[in-house]
Amino acid sequence: MSGIDALPPLRQVIADHDLSAKKALGQNFLLDLNLTAKIARQAGDLSGADVLEIGPGPGGLTRGLLAEGARRVLAVEKDARCLPALAEIAKAYPGRLEVVNADALKLDPLAHLSPPVRVVANLPYNVGTELLVRWLTPAEWPPFWQSLTLMFQREVAERIVAVPGSKAYGRLAILAQWRADARIVMSLPPEAFTPPPKVSSAVVHLTALPAPRYPADAKVLERVVAQAFNQRRKMLRAALKGLAPDIEDRLRAVGIDPTRRAETVTLEEFCALARDIGG
Ligand code: SAM
Questions:
Q1: Ligand 1 contact via 127 beta carbon (within 6 Å)
Q2: Which of 181, 233, 234, 260 is surrounded by the fewest CB atoms within 10 Å?
Q3: pLDDT, tens digit only, all 279 positions of the chain
């Protein structure tokens, strides 16, 4: 017994199924089920929602989500070694857990989910960042998800919630804050994981806004922001030269001094520039 359910403790699950952590898959497991239940609670009311969990591993967070009352969990795991352990969880929660053995970067999970959908994941940070950008940049809005509750390296979490003028402010802050409310809801030291990673982690909770904060075309905004922050030390007139031959005039037309640098430009100003370029 583990406290939140009648299944064995995670250390035993890992030993029984020989789930030694693989570095190549970014496997740093959470073994404290009280902690995984706490993360699950950050995702909001799960009772009326399907939860998409990416990277369940031995199932610590999966068990937290189910114990906290998720209507259904779809868990997508790349490492087939984890499947028998996850099958035991599915048996303990009949009809509420579906496990798919796939690479989350290649799978379209929508066929398996009914709205409303909440996404929860503790993923290797590079996969997490790539998925976050995809989930934030579909052509149409609102997206398939209502909220995202994601574990990141602390430094990446800070980039998502960063404000203009700060060192962490850049592409992730703009894309996240344009269409969602984003905040850091938990901090975790390396020792919370087995094996411990080198750096601290944080959980970011994002709620999809019904409509983007300011109108802009997603692809154009992405392009403008990527280019502006690629050369963040340069003045905008130089950093954005490749975007349009008359970029200085366009910057002035939307009220941005062309000698400013990207990190001083607000979300509203980036959207105005994207509209001017895209229109
Ligand atoms: N959720 C578990 C926990 O909190 O203990 C495991 C977290 S571990 C940081 C990341 C998990 O994501 C591992 O189980 C790993 O196998 C899985 N994973 C890595 N890349 C993946 C991918 N592209 N698609 C699906 N799962 C992936």
A1: yes
A2: 233
A3: 568 999 999 999 999 999 999 999 999 999 999 999 999 999 999 999 999 999 999 999 999 999 999 999 999 999 999 999 999 999 999 999 999 999 999 999 999 999 999 999 999 888 999 999 999 999 899 999 999 999 999 999 999 999 999 999 999 999 999 999 999 999 999 999 999 999 999 999 999 999 999 999 999 999 999 999 999 899 999 999 999 999 999 999 999 999 999 999 999 999 999 999 986
39 lines ligand 1 (CB under 6 A): no
State whether the Cα torsion 204-210-215-220 is positive or negative.
positive
Q: Is any atom of ligand 1 closer than 6 Å to the C-beta of 54? A: yes
pLDDT tens column, 167-176: 999 999 999 9
Q: Which atom of ligand 1 is nearest to the CA of 55?
A: 12
Ligand 1, atom nearest to 22 Cα: 16
Domain of 193 in residue numbering reads as: 10-208
Is 60 a pocket residue for ligand 1 (Cβ < 6 Å)? Answer: yes
Compute the distance from residue 99 Cα to the ligand 1 centre, in Å.
13
Is the minimum distance from the CB of 57 to ligand 1 under 6 angstroms?
Answer: yes
Q: Indicate which CATH number applies to the domain containing 20.
A: 3.40.50.150
Last residue of a domain, one of 168, 190, 208: 208
Do 127 and 26 have their domain in common?
A: yes
In a domain, residue 82? The reply is yes
Report the interhelical angle of 218-230 vs 171-179 (nearest 10°).
150
Closest Cα to atom 6 of ligand 1: 57
Q: How far does residue 116's CA lie from ligand 1's centre (Å)? A: 23
CA–CA separation, 51 vs 165, rounded Å? 35
Residue 263 included in any domain: yes
Ordered alpha helix ranges (H), the chain = 10-16, 33-42, 60-67, 83-92, 125-136, 154-161, 171-179, 218-230, 236-239, 247-253, 267-278
Radius of gyration of the chain (CA): 21
